[in-house]
Amino acid sequence: MTTRRFKQEGLYLAIAATLLMAPLAHAAEAGPAARDAATAQARGLIAGNAGLLRASAADSFEARDVVIDRDGTQHARFARSYQGLRVIGGDVVVTSRRGELKSAQLSLRSAQRPSLSARVIGKDQAAIEAGARFNGRVSKIHGNELVVYARGATPVLAYEVTVQGEETEQHSGFVTYYVNASDGRVLDVQDQLQTAAAIGTGKSFYYGNLSLPTDQKSATKFDLIDTTRGNGKVYDAKGAAISNLFDILGATLGATLFTDADNTWGNNTLSDRATVATDIHYGVGATWDYFKNVHGRLGLYNDNKGINSYAHTNFKTSTGGTTGVNAAYFALTKVMFYGDGDASRGYGPIVGIDVAGHEMSHGVNAATANLAYSGDAGGLNEANSDILGTLVEFYANHPNDPGDYRIGEIMRTGGLAFRDMYNQGADGKSFNCYIGGSGFDPNLAAGGIHDPHYTSGVANRMAYLAIEGAVTPAGTTLTPAQLVCNGDTGIVGIGRDKFGKIWYRALTTKFTSSTTYPQARAATLAAAAELYGAGSPEQTTIARAWSAASVN
């Protein structure tokens, strides 16, 4: 279960063993029979290449996703278990063509496995260690179970402990800890609370009057359901306050679907509760269209199903109050929540297009690479949502909210943004340049200095440079030298279309749950070579952009 949220003011708003690489066409749609056949073939290749996949005799693999290119190349993604225990960081993508293995993408560094009888601490002690790190009132422990934690150099036996309780400035009310079963050390911290057809008129808050697909039930009853995009629905959460799983379930059970008698929704002001619902409906539809028309993806999980969105949600704070300055995607039930902002502090409703694109892209990640929410992978997770959310905003091309590389600027007084992708470090917390060494520490996530909302700045800067080049962003006084970490001011961008295809291909066919920044560099370079050719200008630009963010 993962939920991702924006973060503002403390709130939570491969190793590639490449055997052959040649330019490929884009992915094509494939039916269940073709996907089943690809999965079966990949299982055979796994069995015959245990060494390459760092597999032990007691490993087992569960299929999670299959992508089939138009030229027949197959990318099958598997989760890994060892003697029945999930291997955290053991996932793998097997790429093949005509029955021949082409590459294997994985982050697992060792075929060594821990002894399952080497436990020194028990479940109760693991829960105590996790609770001590929670830094707030604990109300319940969920899912305290043994796993093999393999995001480090050597897999170790650990407990995966999810703590539910009071939200603080450091974390939400739902945090997962990985506790070493031999000595009780916390290895990793991951915040889990991350966010018949008719055409009606939506009088939105940000985007003026919009044509909206709705569902007509009778001559005088319309539901805010997009029947053209998987029947995604918009509900009124009625101000329900959330911070943990039980809150979320209660909010969804108490919400009501937006309905209308004349198929006209809202009045362009906040006096009508349906006004922001139309902004949400529009943003969700724009995101669906981007993934469908640009990447051939039908819905977040590529299952042609829409998601449920909840307007008028509040988010609990550590002081016992609530705030509307937030939005969140909840992967367990595939739903989204949107806050109403806070006019007294200069925040409008948190329902902009790039917010919808950002939060829904957490769903695409959950369905594909499933990047963890700590360490390097956490930064890539958040950056992935910023990158794809920004591409959605450019794709929508609405005159009220032109595409840019600033997150959430339409929702703040004076055009301020939650984040500037090209200079995220301007907030005094985020990283523009990679720190090198062993990378960002998973144990310093969930509100710490290596929180994914801060470490995402590295990939966000790379994306800006790869798309636009070392060019001063509109409306800023930044010099080219201030946009790079290595003095390379000669980078010429490849544009949004090419970069989006490269990034999406790397996410869906190469990234794994524990991909590091250097591995992401290798994966995107491989994707660029597959799409545009080895040594192509596109691949060269991606390499220079990563280097300009200190990822080498």
Automatic annotation (TrEMBL):
<feature type="domain" description="FTP">
    <location>
        <begin position="59"/>
        <end position="105"/>
    </location>
</feature>
<keyword id="KW-0645">Protease</keyword>
<dbReference type="InterPro" id="IPR011096">
    <property type="entry name" value="FTP_domain"/>
</dbReference>
<keyword id="KW-0482">Metalloprotease</keyword>
<feature type="domain" description="Peptidase M4 C-terminal">
    <location>
        <begin position="369"/>
        <end position="551"/>
    </location>
</feature>
<dbReference type="GO" id="GO:0006508">
    <property type="term" value="P:proteolysis"/>
</dbReference>
<feature type="active site" description="Proton donor">
    <location>
        <position position="453"/>
    </location>
</feature>
<keyword id="KW-0732">Signal</keyword>
<dbReference type="InterPro" id="IPR050728">
    <property type="entry name" value="Zinc_Metalloprotease_M4"/>
</dbReference>
<dbReference type="InterPro" id="IPR023612">
    <property type="entry name" value="Peptidase_M4"/>
</dbReference>
<keyword id="KW-0862">Zinc</keyword>
<dbReference type="InterPro" id="IPR013856">
    <property type="entry name" value="Peptidase_M4_domain"/>
</dbReference>
<comment type="function">
    <text>Extracellular zinc metalloprotease.</text>
</comment>
<feature type="signal peptide">
    <location>
        <begin position="1"/>
        <end position="27"/>
    </location>
</feature>
<protein>
    <recommendedName>
        <fullName>Neutral metalloproteinase</fullName>
        <ecNumber>3.4.24.-</ecNumber>
    </recommendedName>
</protein>
<dbReference type="Pfam" id="PF07504">
    <property type="entry name" value="FTP"/>
</dbReference>
<keyword id="KW-0378">Hydrolase</keyword>
<keyword id="KW-0964">Secreted</keyword>
<dbReference type="GO" id="GO:0004222">
    <property type="term" value="F:metalloendopeptidase activity"/>
</dbReference>
<feature type="domain" description="Peptidase M4">
    <location>
        <begin position="200"/>
        <end position="364"/>
    </location>
</feature>
<dbReference type="GO" id="GO:0005576">
    <property type="term" value="C:extracellular region"/>
</dbReference>
<dbReference type="GO" id="GO:0046872">
    <property type="term" value="F:metal ion binding"/>
</dbReference>
<dbReference type="InterPro" id="IPR027268">
    <property type="entry name" value="Peptidase_M4/M1_CTD_sf"/>
</dbReference>
<comment type="similarity">
    <text>Belongs to the peptidase M4 family.</text>
</comment>
<dbReference type="InterPro" id="IPR001570">
    <property type="entry name" value="Peptidase_M4_C_domain"/>
</dbReference>
<dbReference type="Pfam" id="PF01447">
    <property type="entry name" value="Peptidase_M4"/>
</dbReference>
<feature type="active site">
    <location>
        <position position="359"/>
    </location>
</feature>
<dbReference type="Pfam" id="PF02868">
    <property type="entry name" value="Peptidase_M4_C"/>
</dbReference>
<keyword id="KW-0479">Metal-binding</keyword>
<keyword id="KW-0865">Zymogen</keyword>
